[in-house]
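Field reference: sequence -> structure
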Amino acid sequence: MPKLSAQRVSSPEYGAPSASHAVLTSGAGPNSRRGVWLAALPDSEQRALRHVGLRITALRRQRRVTRAELALAADLNAAHLGTIERGESNATFLSLVRIAVALDADVSALIEPVR
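Structure field:
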């Protein structure tokens, strides 16, 4: 699959690739604002955020795209994309749509459970 070009992707076409699932630890310090917010979430919600981030990271790596390239193609800030990938922030639905389009994937591929 070709790498993403350095432009915003606006195509609504999706694919549904598989992705691997791995364990990732949060980079937000316990005393940071984000760390306090994360600690206040129930464990199930923290796991859900990490799961979505892991799926995005796996799809991005599978397509051999850097975080900066994906951020540019999805019209997102690279630092914000990093927090989403690490499970440190709650992405909006529209951000997930932009990421999915940029990865040529279906939004459901970012949130479906690994079987």
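Note: The two ends are 24 Å apart (CA to CA).
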